[in-house]
Protein 1
Amino acid sequence: EAQVTQNPRYLITVTGKKLTVTCSQNMNHEYMSWYRQDPGLGLRQIYYSMNVEVTDKGDVPEGYKVSRKEKRNFPLILESPSPNQTSLYFCASSGDLSGGSYNEQFFGPGTRLTVL
Amino acid sequence: QKEVEQDPGPLSVPEGAIVSLNCTYSNSAFQYFMWYRQYSRKGPELLMYTYSSGNKEDGRFTAQVDKSSKYISLFIRDSQPSDSATYLCAMKGGTGGFKTIFGAGTRLFVKA
């Protein structure tokens, strides 16, 4: 089954404790992206990646890191989480070498993060 | 000013009604316009996308883009209770490249 998986789905942590949210897709997609969703603000793009070892900042990259060492994985790293990073996070992927659309992003199920 | 403005609603309509959802934007360089549907506790899923101006129809859904007014719409005909969800517009292209900007989403309730 074609899908984007994220882990963990729920996480409660404390300020300053480094964490990683994993994202994996099995559709051979080149493009992957991380978003956060907050009430009244919609989805805001954190980082995106065009391909392995190619990443770029979205609209709200401060406090986050990403890496793309393999095509299928795109982890989101919070080196020192703070309470303002409490949010619902989505990973998404799109576009493959066979001509799949880069406009159709497939989203994961979301990770609800709470930073105390 | 946000790059993309979308009324958060909620919008409540009776079953069978025609629903109109809208977004305005400020960046004239946007070229691709998408509509996503998001059910509660789920990730968004793409409904439709259009390139540049014009209309696109898919079943009960019609997407319209008016680049001269920087205004996009999604129409849902014969709305069903299963259409109850949050609808997000999204845009990208031009100088922003692959950066995608989403609206805040409009919450829709269709009552049986």
Protein 2
Amino acid sequence: KNEVEQSPQNLTAQEGEFITINCSYSVGISALHWLQQHPGGGIVSLFMLSSGKKKHGRLIATINIQEKHSSLHITASHPRDSAVYICAVRSRYGNKLVFGAGTILRVKS
Amino acid sequence: DAGVIQSPRHEVTEMGQEVTLRCKPISGHDYLFWYRQTMMRGLELLIYFNNNVPIDDSGMPEDRFSAKMPNASFSTLKIQPSEPRDSAVYFCATTTQGEFTNYGYTFGSGTRLTVV
């Protein structure tokens, strides 16, 4: 079993829909990261969470440390949100990240 | 700042040849990470440096891979000899301890390596 599991693997949505991507992990962590990778390949850090919730524009990320689970929400989705969303966890020791396999999101207009 | 600069963007080489990938971190970033991304395995950490010193190279697949950081503004990842299974996108990412705590890394654009 992978240390970081994401669901769904693929997601297709209509423009305007509310989107949720889930991430579960099995190890103790000090932080969880959400990354976005666009079709061109570039990777952008979206959020770093150690507790609670963070919001940036239409993106909201939450984490439940006790349940070892995080969600990334996109409100009023748009075709430009189409990308791969990757969850990564940072162990309690050191600065290494362990990555999930990613969720491929396609938003249709 | 121009961000994390990787070169080349694309590299096509023949099996057995030596390949060198380069990374220039953001000025002031004292952590540098080399990642490899493949369809099968996703993103994997190869090695990371702190203050130019290799801290964890447990992800380096085998002796054919080596990485150096001779100074704070330059790092290389070398594969010698290259094999077709090394074909992947190699990312360099850099950060400071403070920035890592807040939002994570800044990634370079990656080098797409194809070994034929």
